[in-house]
Amino acid sequence: MKDKLKTVFICQTCGTRSPKWLGRCPGCGEWNTMVEEAEETAPAAEYSFPPSEALLYRDIKEGAKQRIQIPADEFNKVLGGGVVLGSLVLIGGEPGIGKSTLLLQVCRDFAAQGERVLYVSGEESLEQIKIRGDRLGVRDGELYLLAETNMERIIAQAEKIRPRVFVVDSVQTVFSAKLSSSPGTISQVREAANEIFRFAKKNNVSSFLIGHITKEGSLAGPKSLEHMVDVVLLFEGERDHSYRVLRALKNRFGPVSELAIFEMTASGLQAILNPSAFFLKERPAEESGSVVVSTIKGSRPLLAEVQALVSPTLFAGNPRRMTIGLDHFRTSLLLAVIEKKMRASFGGQDIYLNVAGGLQIEEPAADLGVILAVISCLKNRALPRDVVVFGEVGLSGEVRSVSSPLARIKEALSLGFETVLLPKGNLAMLEREDLPKARLLGIQNIKEASPLIFS
Ligand code: TYD
Ligand code: MG
User: Residue 325: which domain range?
Assistant: First the structure.
């Protein structure tokens, strides 16, 4: 018998435990994340799997995992070809980004296919969900809704309804009465994930768990959930833009390279099947400082517009360097390369760089585009409208090969571009027969770009 409740301090970000309070977590270095929670003395719940036996590799049958698919092909693709029966998928994203909307749509599509679905919300009332569902065009079908936060009652309902698809929205709002800590604390979040995991495996139910992400990007505070689940998906985007990106961070049943792009509309999320066209649709005609780059997102190519603005500074001696959508340090490096290798001088100039549409480009293949955007603005001359560029640029101004040149070129051609400026190294490796109508200009150094493009 316990007479005193034992407590322990647990970091809400990484799960590190400490017997006393600490201002800074020794595990992840975050400040003010240690929260007092009741020490759980109960043993970790046991799984009742059949006793296991070691098998010879060649005797193991290739039991292809059974998947269920929905017509929304983009969602299946990110999961690696549909959702595996009995798997647990964690979907993380910032509040308001559209996680509930996405999952309700997925439930709608499963139900429309005749699957039995249970959607549990700890955040909204049934009426609120129904208002959203009406907007999303939810029709008849076996879609059950439950507004509940008590984990034991949720599982009891799930045992009764026996769905094939099970959604809990969100892991931060549900709690187990077995624990004394409040919802959202790391022990509650873990316990909830555990319960759902057990339910999913035992009954072979495809389960989805929604988790809010903090601004710093840790999954639901509890990063510790990531290793417990089969699949981790991230749903992200800029609040001020309508597009959203869904991608896999971890997938036990498929690749993590696929991503899907959606647009948030008045009637829910619509897959953007031609993202390049979407991101280029408002590109200005014949403007200096605008360059279209061919970049790779996930495993597929995407055309994006890089914009530069160079203007005399008001801050003599300390001009501004602002970038949105590009890596700030990498951009500073590229500006230094332009100054040194192309004898440009912008000591007295503010420089602003932006990727249109709120996109983020992380890969160095955009380097050449960034450089040309700056040069185009400095010269006040627009690039020809049919040019797309890609290539990594090194400190000597050399243009280096990048991955997947063929995919990048084909994407450009398919959108009506005819000229591609690319690394000479990439050009040398290409089979030209594939690209009869393309005008491919290979360069080795950034100095070669201007005469080709601005002549
Ligand atoms: P929501 O799915 O509630 O976000 P999360 O669950 O990630 O917190 O989506 C919130 C936003 O989506 C909200 O600001 C309204 C917008 N929205 C639309 O624009 N169209 C729609 O059809 C729906 C349902 C939501
Ligand atoms: Mg929500």
Answer: 278-454
